[in-house]
Amino acid sequence: MSDIIKNRYDFILLFDVQDGNPNGDPDAGNLPRVDAETGMGLVTDVCLKRKVRNYVQIKNENKKPYDIFIKEKAILNNLIKEATEQEINKGKEKGDKTESARKWMCENYYDVRTFGAVMTTGENAGQVRGPIQFTFARSIDPIIALEHSITRMAVATEKEAEAQNGDNRTMGRKSTVPYGLYCTHGFISAHLANQTGFNENDLDLFWEALKNMFDQDHSAARGMMSTRKLVVFKHNTALGNAPAHQLFDLVKVERNDKTKSSRAFSDYSVKIDRSKLPEGVELIEMV
């Protein structure tokens, strides 16, 4: 097992979508999420964490210590019960049993020691606050959500076929964003990593996931999504050497020609002011 991380990190992730829906809103007919006041597109932190989980799950095939706790069709209480029934928990008082179960979950589930989890829905394995957190991703410019009519050359039931008089076509709707460049900010706490056991190998896997997660998440609904830029600020201390917002302000993303609609990443320029980088902070362009 590698060493627990000892440095604070802040990072900026730029990703884009072309002719797809990066994160549908179920309360709005699955339309792309949008800030109603500004028209900026939104992607939730939960959506981004899901993509990281999926990448880790695919790469490691649910093998411990890189298993995933929050995964499709998982029954969480059964997984929590597994932790409380481990040999290390036998014969312990209630408080010690909960702490041992919490530790076991952190050791065996990558997403628990990375993002944290609430594990009190059945058997009590405590709560974990993870060292890595995302903000909502927000598009650089306002987005336009388009709706398209689509047809299916089939029906689901014989009753539908009879109603169509043999014309087995049904209509549907599909929502897309022609193009959007999104930016999310992230934070990695060495203090919380020490509590969950998040180590250097876990960190390397996280960076790998951010670079490649969209390539393992293609679907007809999401169109073309890609990681375009990953800028990491590594502090030489656990507490950090500068406020995160001060570091994020060093990265500027601007549209090259504001008179034209953007339709590709090449329509933007990413500029980083390295001259104002605070002492004790290393800037790493991973993508």
TrEMBL record:
<dbReference type="InterPro" id="IPR013418">
    <property type="entry name" value="CRISPR-assoc_prot_Cas7/Csd2"/>
</dbReference>
<dbReference type="GO" id="GO:0043571">
    <property type="term" value="P:maintenance of CRISPR repeat elements"/>
</dbReference>
<dbReference type="InterPro" id="IPR006482">
    <property type="entry name" value="Cas7_Csh2/Csh2"/>
</dbReference>
<protein>
    <submittedName>
        <fullName>CRISPR-associated protein, Csd2 family</fullName>
    </submittedName>
</protein>
<dbReference type="Pfam" id="PF05107">
    <property type="entry name" value="Cas_Cas7"/>
</dbReference>
